[in-house]
Amino acid sequence: GIYDAKYEPQQIPTNSVTHVIYAFANISSDGTVQSSDPWADVQRRSTNDTEEKGNNAYGCVKQLYLQKTQNRRLKTLLSVGGWSASKHGLFNKAAATDESRKRFAKSAVKLATDWGMDGLDVDWEYPSNPTEAKQIVLLLKECRDAFDKYAAANNQTYHFLLTAATPAGPENYKNMDLAGMDPYLDSWNIMAYDLCW
Asked: Any idea which architecture 9-196 has in CATH?
């Protein structure tokens, strides 16, 4: 990332990749999806930025947008959650009720589309029981519906992507309803790197 590694989005070799997953957006206690680091996401100025009035995006979001101008086939996805959000039970709260799922989906779609992303990656690590397995299916369905409604309301035929970061090890994926999740997903992002732990 931009802090310790000093790796900027403009350093991504976009001629060699098809998708960039930008992680992570946070989940608040009521299920609202929001920026985890507004300064890094949209406020931080790069050396080539000019000061402009208005609500312009800067930071990593602008750099990703500029990368997309160099590779028109590049897709960017906003990843929501991750280990920290999962560890603190924020997905459980966001997926618990119809109201909280709608809030999650609506706010996630708004943030992703405001930032010019091509979709969402849901990173819940990991549903651990039948109730949570059912809840992630319902959460993904709500996200798919929210993207489709957004596209219809904005006269777009664009299909926004919805993916899930999922475990590679059976001790975690055995608790998930993979067949139930699949109809709502465009692709699966298998976290094979977690197998070493």
From this structure: Alpha-Beta Barrel (3.20)
